[in-house]
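Q: My collaborator sent me two sequences in one message, no labels, and asked for predicted structures for both. Can we handle them in order? The first one she listed is below.
A: Yes, handling them in the order given. First sequence, followed by its structure tokens:
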Amino acid sequence: MVLREMRTRNYSQRSITTYVHMLQKLEEYFATSVDEISIEQVKDFLQYSIEKKKVSVSFINQVISAVKLLQHDILGKSWETIRIRRPRMDKRLPIVLSKEEIKSMIETTRNLKHQTLLALTYSAGLRISEVIGLKPSDIDSDRKQIRVLGKGNKYRYTLLSENTLEMLRTYWRAYRPVRYLFEGQKKGQPFSRTSINKVFKQTCKRAGIKKEATVHSLRHSFATHLLESGVNLKIIQGLLGHSSLRTTSIYLHVTRFDPASIKSPFDEITW
């Protein structure tokens, strides 16, 4: 029932897997069918998960979203009468790597596939799921852009840098991927999320990077560096695929501006 509804609504496979997993956890905890579990029971489960299991805010929100899909969208209950208050997310600033650190990562990576994957992720501002899903046909070398399938199965276009394009050409000649741009050990199968995280961690260690960075930090760095270069926030929003400018505006808090380099509009007036 839930699977059919999510597929009809064109949910991503990752979202489907997450929601089904959360509903299964509820069924296992109460030893009953999920459609028979009350909202009060759901709240009890969430309280238990927070106090005993020390789960993350993300976990809690995933459970609530899964329950809302079932109770409201499938069973037709009024969400206003069964609403569960979501916990507030910690306002953590993104971890940003400097351009020198990015350069060091690329230079210390000896494997051509790994080097190209990391360079593309940074230079195009991609999520890990997006780089995994890229196909060779998504690379438009003539128009210098990349077609990306992002959140909510929405397509967007982002940058294809000259340096990355040259790396991609070298990579293509060496690997000749069949279906996905970056494939695992099996031809036609995408490079796994686990493998990318492992490659990133090893690369940071070799490059001497001590920050608690993740693959997603490459995306944060892309956005921050564009903003520091003077690119309009609205344009960055489009490149990142953010539905809200508010999400993109977090990079304003980590951007380093040199006041001396900013010219007052008053100085542009001719007297």
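Q: And the one she listed second?
A: Here it is, processed independently of the first:
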Amino acid sequence: MSDHPHWDWTLLRAGSLRLDGGSMFGVVPRVMWSRLSPPDESNRIGLQTNCLFLKSGDQAVLIETGCGDKWSEKMRSIFAIEERTVVDALAEHGISPGDIGDVVVTHLHFDHAGGLTRQDGDEAVPVFGSASVHVQGREWEDAIANRSTMTGTYLRTHLDPIADRVILLDGECNILPGIRSWPMPGHTWGQQAILIDTDDGVVCFPGDVCPTRHHVGAPYSMGYDMLPYENMLSKRRLLDRAASESWTLVLDHEPGDATFRVHVEGNWFVLEPLN
């Protein structure tokens, strides 16, 4: 019998956005990716910011925070950022930000960590009160130094207000009982997948190692990835273990059904939707 809790989990839709299709699919030719995810007139594809709410007894944990609300009209238009936040998604389930004791983020790009803070007059303030924020130490270091090919993705308005409550993780480790970190370098150096023990087995939130169902293929990495080859190796490791151990995957940017099982097919893997 396990001596750590099994978590109940709820998928939260924290708001849609659109990003350039060519950037989202990297070296994959447009003629191929556009069949899978048709772009709009600005070559953007539709994405979602999926998050997880975890509950075990009196403990409440949030995985990811979406884009948040600190966007100018210009930026909201460029990325078609929906006027919806993770706070709205939590409220639909009767949960307030003050109920959250811990927040875990896979990495600190704006569409994952933007919801850590909100606009209050002329300043950004924490959304989740005194909740601890768990992130890999390497990811925090890179975010503060703005080490990225995209200079506008690590934003200090998301980071500085919560700096005093960040818990820095060091590689594979237990974050909380029944919640574990598994480093997934590639998209960023410090990205982590989150493994959650539930009554139905392990639920894995892999972050941007595989953001949508259409990124399951080996060469389907993003132009945003810092280390595309490393990301492919991370994806193989993740999919292989997910298939062999019958995990449930929850994909962070999948706009449709976001939960999947993984099966081996030939020399690679396929995703089976659960809904």
